Amino acid sequence: MLYPVVSRTRRIFDICGIWKFKFDPEGKGLSENWHSGLKDTVPMVVPASFNDFFTDKYSREYTGDFWYETDFIVPEEWKGKNVAVRFDAATHRAEVYVNGVFITKHEGGFLPFTANINDAVKWNEKNKIVVHMNNELSYETLPAGTTKVLKNGVKMSKPFFDFFNYSGLQRPVRLIATPKEGICSYSLVHRIDGSTAFTDYEIKAGSGDLEVTLLDDDGNTAAEGSGASGTLEIKNAKLWEVLNPYLYTLRIRLKSGAEIIDEYSEAVGIRTIEVKGTDILVNGKPVYLKGFGKHEESALYGRGYNPAAIKRDFELMKWIGANSFRTAHYPYSEEILQMADREGFLVIDEVAAVGFFESIMNFLEASSKKTTGFFTRSEVQTKTKENHKAALKELIERDKNHACVIAWSLMNEPETTNEAAVPYFKEIFDYAAELDPQKRPRTFALIMNSTPDKCFCYQFADIICLNRYYGWYHMGGYEITDAKEDFIAEMNAWKEKNLNKPFIFSEFGADTMPGLHKLPSVMWSEEYQREYLKMQFDVFDAYDFVKGEQVWNFADFQTTEGIMRVDGNKKGIFTRDRQPKEAAYMFKERWEALPREYKS
Ligand code: BDP
Questions:
Q1: 11-178 and 274-593: same fold?
Q2: What is the distance, to the nearest Å, from the Cα of residue 321 to the centroid of all Cα atoms in its chain?
């Protein structure tokens, strides 16, 4: 699952652009042989979510099977190579056909998959790739939800989560030519001793001699190694630091005598990450997390890969004094992690295990006493868990070498108030530890009613991430003084547990209509957002074990329509078109003043 690069032995052919597209509401495509070629299609942008281009509601909300198709040529020169197609994401599931031949299928909409197409392609001629997709939600899918059939027979998505069910080929699709028996994967684990860094590496590759070189940014060799595993010793190592990252280039060569069979290079940062007591340590030094829960989404593209939005978001995050974000509620594009590596941002990398509480308004009902027994369902303990583990494996395999990734978030707001969740959690948390060579801290975001007296699962987390909405879902407006007391009572209860672990507020926020001013404040006004935040900061600052705050959300974002959502969720500190609300200036002032090692 290496990120595709071009090197002396590797080639990429980008097949993004305008594809053919078609809905298949009756699911008759396969029996009518659509996989050999589509008729009566509309043009569709790849990569992008299909939803927001359409002007009719049926198409925007479409739930069910749908199809994509395009043509491509495979150069004759690639004949001796392993030719594969790589989908960076196909939401939520896909079956791929080349020239009518079944190639592969994949479950889960936010992680890449590749498949060899050598036997199906015609060299130097037109080839047809057809993708049969589906975006239905169920208890077994990540994210979870249900699919309702309206009285008129039309299917509709009912997510158990608070973001629009954007779907389609949302990330790039590329053809990749690599050597037949080349470099498959590598992993790095760093140690620092004074001014020297030691990087243990392990490489999986075909047979041959492996040569590993670490190059500095002038192209000079900083360290060398050979063989499938070993240690690079980097004298006077330049570390990857928070907001001040240094990136080396790791170059791997697979050789047979003087001949280079394969070459792969990638930018890598050297840093350590550790949780010690209530501290989060990067390179042995404590760091207080300031930042956001985000979404990967923007106007028109939906959840589609949008490099302009990525660039703007990082500029805004730097401007406001942030140093971190969580990839709520699914793995983001690899290019976002590359940018975080380059900008020195700390990332809590989340798998799409969201909606594990049966509610279409979980954000609201989480504050109530409602229980749904999500983990008591037999399909959850079997199919969902299988899908969860598969996604986790793909996530960690994809992201394990990124310096920016400092923790894995294994679930968002699962229902932990039922003991049935315990064995599920144990298996997932153990599995993450087993998969990650760097043994990063593992966490999950605790829903409002996962309080110290009710939650059966917080003991699994190395970092306790709280999603808390005191003063919004719980006693908003004039009742905010009571909300504050309840908030303090919960925090005191955590304090009494003396867990000796860092706590982060992974969510807190108040919906705010940009430009709505009201004196005195009312909920939804810019004034109330500031009052609400002031109250949160008072509480955060009162507890030494609170080691971070990631406000919900970076920007306003699209959700399912409903009485609680005005054209989406408005908790953004920035608007959906990435302009500041008043609260942005409040964060800027606070975060620029908080030292990196705040409270340590
Ligand atoms: C939490 C969810 C998040 C929601 C947020 C909210 O984790 O996805 O968008 O609440 O209600 O429940 O704004």
A1: no
A2: 22
Is residue 48 within 8 Å of residue 302, measured between CB atoms?
Answer: yes
What residue spans define the domains of the chain? 11-178, 183-271, 274-593
The one catalytic residue among 266, 415, 507, 549: 507
For 274-593, CATH gives 3.20.20.80
Could you read off the pLDDT of 71-86 as tens digits, one per residue?
A: 999 999 999 999 999 9
CA of 372 to the centre of ligand 1 (A): 18
Burial string for 327-353 (b: 16+ CB within 10 Å, else e) reads: bbbbbbbbbbbbbbbebbbbbbbbbbb
Count Cβ neighbours within 10 Å for each residue of 26-60 and write b for 16 or more, e otherwise.
eeebeeeebbeebeebeebbbbbbbbbbeeeeeeb
**Positive or negative torsion for Cα 178, 184, 185, 186:** negative
Coil, helix or strand for 347? Answer: strand
- 198 alpha carbon to ligand 1 midpoint, in Å? 41
Total residues belonging to the chain: 600
Candidates 263, 413, 415, 490; catalytic one? 413
pLDDT at position 260 is 98
Instruction: State which CATH number among 3.20.20.140, 3.40.50.20, 2.60.40.10, 3.20.170.30 fits the domain covering 183-271.
Output: 2.60.40.10
- Report the atom number in ligand 1 closest to the C-alpha of 447: 12
Strand pairing of 42-46 and 65-73? unpaired
Residues with CB under 6 A from ligand 1: 161-162, 329, 362-363, 366, 412-413, 467, 507, 552, 569, 571
In the structure encoding, which two tokens stand for residue 463, read together? 């970092």
Atom nearest to 473 CA in ligand 1:
11
* AA identity, residue 305: Y
Three-state SS for 58-83 is: HHHCCCCEEEEEEEEEECHHHCCCEE
- Neighbouring residues of 476: CB distance < 8 A, sequence distance ≥ 6: 483, 510, 523, 532
Q: Which residues of the chain have pLDDT under 70?
A: none
Nearest atom in ligand 1 to 445's CA = 7
Residue nearest to ligand 1 atom 12, measured at CA: 363
Of 2.60.120.260, 2.102.10.10, 1.20.1250.20, 1.10.3720.10, which CATH number belongs to 11-178? 2.60.120.260
